[in-house]
Design a protein that fits this description.
With 276 residues, the chain is mainly α. It is 59% helix and 0% strand. The longest helix is centred in the middle third of the chain and has 28 residues. The structure holds fe (ii) ion. Fe (ii) ion (FE2) binds next to α6 and α7.
Length: 276
């Protein structure tokens, strides 16, 4: 296979790097993500960098940031980015590798943004290594289709969380939410466009349908338990607007629509789940 960069097939829609960022068409048609509205009466807290934070608030914020792996001082994140490039080298068609490189560049941009936030909140945390705990990050990626699903589902999880930060009581997080949401949606669209390409043929489509249950269950599980005892606290302090069940349901509606548009059948939402 000729992998000379100039051989990029620009006729494949959204294939060449020229198509980047992939969030543009999605936002050109309005707000692609659903509103996550808080229906609970709560105090209107607002804290900025350097403010003295209530202990519980700071603990919850750090807990939330531990889930957001992309941070310059997080060795595990840098290792994960290297893995991403290895996968692209080993499994991607040439025209898709350029997009993957754009993706990595953008995640590195996020790593700087989250580093600044972490350094302003707790300098010790800024350099802490936080290995990826959720099993979605450890599912085998043995094909381009696997990696496409990873981006479609996992980056979309990031976009939904960033969508919820628009209303965050922590000002630095609210300020960066629109950029992170938009970028993550673009990463998810990259995965989706790869799936579109793979599903263009009957064999590719069969492979994608066969891989879907593995990724679908992990994607829904990334929102945590519906009865998590921390949710009321996150909502009280204005760090989240809705609970795990609500954001998961909004996410499921979004992905089911996208999967149906590819002619794929969404699995039973309880199948293979570890966190309901
Ligand atoms: Fe991403």
């Amino acid at each position: 296979m000729d992998d000379d960069a100039s051989a990029i097939d620009e006729t494949v829609p959204g294939a060449g790097a020229g198509a980047w960022p992939l969030w543009r068409p999605a936002y050109a048609a309005g707000d692609p993500l659903p509103a996550l509205t808080c229906h609970v009466a709560r105090p209107q807290y607002r804290f900025d960098e350097g403010d003295t934070l209530p202990e519980e608030y700071k603990a919850l914020l750090l807990r939330m940031l531990r889930h957001e792996g992309e941070r310059a001082g997080n060795k595990s994140f840098l290792g994960f980015m290297a893995t991403c490039l290895d996968l692209a080298e080993a499994m991607f068609p040439p025209h898709a590798r350029r997009l993957k490189a754009e993706y990595v560049a953008e995640e590195l941009k996020h790593a700087i943004m989250f580093h600044r936030l972490a350094a302003g909140l707790d300098p010790d945390f800024a350099l802490r290594d936080v290995p990826y705990a959720h099993y979605a990050f450890h599912l085998p990626r043995e094909s381009w289709a696997d990696d496409a699903f990873f981006h479609f589902f996992v980056d979309l999880n990031g976009a939904f969380h960033a969508r919820d930060w628009r209303e965050s009581s922590y000002v630095p997080l609210a300020k960066m939410s629109a950029t992170v949401e938009r970028d993550e949606l673009g990463h998810s669209e990259m995965g989706y466009r790869f799936l579109e390409e793979i599903c263009a043929g009957p064999r590719g489509k069969a492979l994608v349908q066969a891989l879907l249950p593995k990724w679908y269950a992990a994607a829904l599980d990334m929102f945590g338990r519906s009865d998590s005892p921390n949710v009321p606290k996150f909502i009280h302090w204005g760090l989240k607007s809705v609970g795990n069940a609500e954001i998961r349901s909004a996410y499921k509606q979004y992905v089911d629509r996208k999967l149906a548009a590819l002619g794929l059948e969404a699995p039973d939402e309880r199948a293979g789940r570890r966190f309901l």
